[in-house]
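Supplementary Methods S3. Input chains for the assembly prediction are listed below.
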Amino acid sequence: MSTEQVPRRRRNAADTRQLLLHVARLRFIRDGYAATTVRDIADDAGVNVALINRYFTSKEGLFEACLGMAASDINRDVDNITLDQITARMANKIATGTDEGSLQDSLMMLLRTSGEERVNLMRREILHAVSEKLAAAAGRPADEETLLRAQVVLATAIGITLLRTSLRLAPIANADEQDLIGPLTDVVNALLPR
Amino acid sequence: MSTEQVPRRRRNAADTRQLLLHVARLRFIRDGYAATTVRDIADDAGVNVALINRYFTSKEGLFEACLGMAASDINRDVDNITLDQITARMANKIATGTDEGSLQDSLMMLLRTSGEERVNLMRREILHAVSEKLAAAAGRPADEETLLRAQVVLATAIGITLLRTSLRLAPIANADEQDLIGPLTDVVNALLPR
DNA sequence: CACAAATGTAAATGTTTGTTTACTTAGGCC
DNA sequence: GGCCTAAGTAAACAAACATTTACATTTGTG
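Predicted structure tokens for the full assembly:
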């Protein structure tokens, strides 16, 4: 049996910064901002606590950086999306496991709050952009009602993600892509008919 | 101008207990478990911190009591509900402001976690019961797919509540009962066709 | 009215928190 | 190859935290 020694990482600021981002994101998503301690994060990364303040000035700064990552990931997912793709991509991205930058992760990250008002504004802007892209995919004039309906689609995605990852409620938590695609198709077609 | 002195409440264990429950629920819903301090709660109630431990043994105990309240409230809301009522009641209960025991409050409370596994089990049981009642309202045999579809309805309610109360995302955050009833009807009919 | 139990408070306790400081170690460049 | 800067660490810091203890006040009752 190997000694499970992590292959001793060489000193590299960029790599360490990235590593901290990665493990912090997982913690923030799973436990939330307040319940996550900077020592938790540092231990996960196998580095000293002080590095968090060195690279991100504060716990808050690290959180904002994680939020920025989630924003990029989720924007990439919904960019130039078409109405036909919404259902399939939602089912796929939601059902697919929690790998780095998955839609589930990004959505959960967007639900986390640090209490800072600036962060709340960021979250609102990101989600507003997402719902506008969904509304645009519907192809209809971007009126208030279309936007509202797009946000209900978004709400469904968020709710499903919550029930699956945070609450682990059966059977939806164990549903695979194939199980989800039917209900999701019905919801999207009902909310954003072509 | 009056001195704004709160009408000095007489000593009464039951009343104080209830008062603590009330203000704690609001805090837990708004700020989450970890971000809420027992001093916040005690100050809101205008009583000494030690009373929390006296009446609920711990912060955790107080949280569980709040969760129990939310469970009762939400069960009352979905008990014996019929398919026709789901849409109207969802739209009404979601749109209606955040008064004591509102559906929005109960749902938000169910999303809060203290980290304790026992609490996670409670939340899962409550939501499972809710989704079973929704499935029962659909009138169809209680197979897995009906339950899954009922949980997607629940997910939509949760998502909308989150977007409204926690993220305050416009325009869904400002939508009134009349604005919501259309999209909600479409979603419920699509997921649980009669 | 007195007194005992119930209700409430103030203050102290020991952790845990995020952050800072002073120090050590590794790595690239002339 | 020595050296200077970048990268990382250990230890200490004060503030905030949940909880406990010891004490005060109110309230119902004989």
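The first helix of chain A runs from residue 13 to 31. Residues 65-191 of chain A form a domain with the Tetracycline Repressor; domain 2 fold (CATH 1.10.357).
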